[in-house]
Design a protein that fits this description.
Blueprint (H helix, E strand, L loop, with lengths): L1 H26 L16 H4 L2 E7 L5 H13 L4 E8 L4 H9 L7 E6 L29 H4 L5 E5 L3 E3 L3 H5 L9 E5 L4 H9 L15 H4 L10 E9 H6 L2 H15 L4 H4 L4 H7 L5 E2 L19 H6 L2 E3 L14 H5 L18
Parallel strand pairs: 1-2, 1-4, 2-3, 6-8
Antiparallel strand pairs: 4-7, 5-9, 6-7
Helix pairs in contact: 10-12
Family: Belongs to the glycosyltransferase 8 family.
Pfam family, one: Glyco_transf_8
Main location: membrane
Length: 350
Amino acid sequence: VVLFISVNQILLFLLVLTVCVILYNKVHKVPSTLNNETIDLESPEEMEEEIPVVICAAAGRMGAAVAAISSIYSNTDANVLFYIVGLKNTIPHIRKWIENSKLKEIKYKIVEFNPMVLKGKIRPDASRPELLQPLNFVRYYLPLLIHKHEKVIYLDDDVIVQGDIQELYDTKLAPGHAAAFSDDCDLPSTHEMVRSVGMQNTYMGYLDYRKQTVRDLGISPSTCSFNPGVIVANMTEWKHQRITKQLEKWMQRNVEENLYSSTLGGGVATPPMLIVFHGKYSTINPLWHVRHLGWSPDARYSEHFLQEAKLLHWNGRYKPWDYPSVHNDLWENWFIPDPSGKFKMIRPNS
């Protein structure tokens, strides 16, 4: 009897042990591929931080977005994810351009922007209707377009990036700041150009100080403005401070009261940002936003200065795919012709 009990105990022990081994293997399942080969569980590509870059692809200037993307992609080893924002009728064109060129290697998402969110918020401007294009306001709505990223770069389409975009992404934002911009008074080498072509670099050029609502802001008209064509943004702070709602409020006030000097400042997209972010933004390294290249068809920077620049911005009327314009060769280095033939550069002999 004693022997019989001992055998039963041994059998029970073996049964429990077998069950434990089976359960252990299920929980700690080892991939069958490990039999003959090794798997790199932490490949650098998977661990590398993704850098989201938002660029708009507008009808008639899609070549600008393509050149900007091409310049960024060619000058970095960083893990860049491009968010290419367009309107419904332009999306097939940009998709085809990317898929039928060397840009097919980039990581990208195409996002449709619904212009209905702007209904009743934009005051018509007969002097420069191109500045009222819906995509000019995409930067207001970054959290609606980007969901999984804490930090985002927004770039106007008329830029070329000559440096490693990782440097721009590493821009430090002070605690409580939702965005970083470039001050319009930051580069001494641009001051002469600013004076020579009569550009505005203070709040006076963007806001109508004859209006009581503007004076009530308590912002000196001589305060240096900033340029929102290059933005490094913190999405958590942006949402926390309800930046989008604040910007929409000032769009609405302008519709009702005509508060902005849009003919001087160049459009109605910048003034709300100047108001909302006044005294509450971090700064971008000046070489990461060398601008005013599109303000005059004659004023030129020195070649040495342009080679030092990390990012070039043709803000103003004279675009590098158009004629007349300056420093077009720097832009053309990155342009990729449109496979469909719809977009063409305008040149003196074209």
